[in-house]
Amino acid sequence: MAPQELFLDPSHTYRLDLATYRPSRRQPRGFFIRRLTSEADANAVNAIYQSRGMVTVRPDFFWTNRDSRAVTYFVAEDDQTGDILGTVTGVDHRRVFQDAENGSSLWCLAVDPQCRHAGVGEMLVRRLAEHFAARGAGFMDLSVMHDNDQAIALYEKLGFHRVPVFAVKRKNPINENLFTHPPADFDLLNPYARLIVDEAHRRGVAVDVTDAEGGFFRLSFGGRSIHCRESLSELTSAVAMSICDDKAVTRRVVERAGLIVPEQMEAVDDDGALGAFLKKHGRVVVKPARGEQGKGVAVGLETLDEMKNAIRIARELSDRVLVEACFEGEDLRLVVIDYRLVAAAVRRAPRVVGDGHKTIGELIEKQSRRRAAATGGESRIPIDDETRRCVAALGYELSSVLPEGEEVVVRKTANLHTGGSIHDVTEKVHPDLVKAACTAARAIDIPVVGIDLMVRSPGQPDYVFIEANERPGLANHEPQPTAERFVDLLFPRSGVKSAERALAPRA
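Structure (tokenized):
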């Protein structure tokens, strides 16, 4: 084997002495650990792998090894929803290669970045350690990237210590990112821009980061060059962007195209008009006419004082403020690229679960740290008037200690940037909702757009249109190929299918 085919793995090896390991007395709260038992489990595990940028495994491989004593799979399942929250894989060295030292190893640990429970990763590692200890293993090894500070901190907390082991690996497409590194300015981009430039770089599309802080970059392939800001490209016209920029204009354009929209009025300094609108609808939404990322939006207002306070806050962001009828349901984001649906996801408002010890404010801060770590710093729950209002509406204050197991929604808006979580429902979305989103995209004449609807359920046809985002975030929609379809739109000949057509023999 030639030397250039090898590389030194940039990982650290850690070992847990199972003879001295002591299980924790703390039990999982809100979830439990069990073995992987079904194809649905395998698919859920692969979805978590994709969301973490990891290599997926053929479902039949999981199934073939489900009863194996050499390879062990555990999953964490949510008590209430049944969702798979995380997974860990372990290998018994004695059964695999007759290890004289009677060791074992943790091969893979992953937790869903949208997970709302604390301690899932820790409990998975502990369960695997206790599994191997009960079978007489002497130690459990693992390999972790040298710069994965969060994982290293967890392992050291559990009693792992670093051992002087170095691994030489053969280069292949799976481990390519371990021995190659994109240009340094890629690391300065936010996750939404980084996702796109990584896909472009993988295809051989030239990338020039023109302003990393703002998320601007230029992509070039063949004789074509396109400037982008995240998912907003030169293919989107100034007119289309202007329509999306003003929520009142957006509403009129899509209503004319036949979409269902909520009743709306512009906020005025007239208590009578505001009170009449509130009386008619019972609950309302206040939002700036211009703005994004959920800033200045207040949902579910039920009193005139709440409305007036929300209008005051929204006017700090936009000179025009809109008041809409509030539609009960779920917040659905549909990503439309080239006038076709690519991804659909339900966005859920941030919530915390009490442990009987921490205050709501402390729980929010802990959840914010976890959300920020899972989203590259893009998602945090702000402690502001809107959060205080939502908590107060439930009869609590930020200083209140939430009873163990009780869950409270701390904001009504479901935007990722204000702590919301996002859950893929592309395979479940009703055809009428897909039609509405694509119709809205064509009415605005915009090739890449995020259409927000309020729906009773993603699988039902009922909806009202909320807004259109001309620069939708393409990250956090795993396993849907959002970045791939975006680069396909910009450079149709750069994809695998184009290459296959070029190599196919002519008839």
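Residues 379 and 417 are 4 Å apart (CA to CA). Confidence is low (pLDDT under 50) at residues 498-507.
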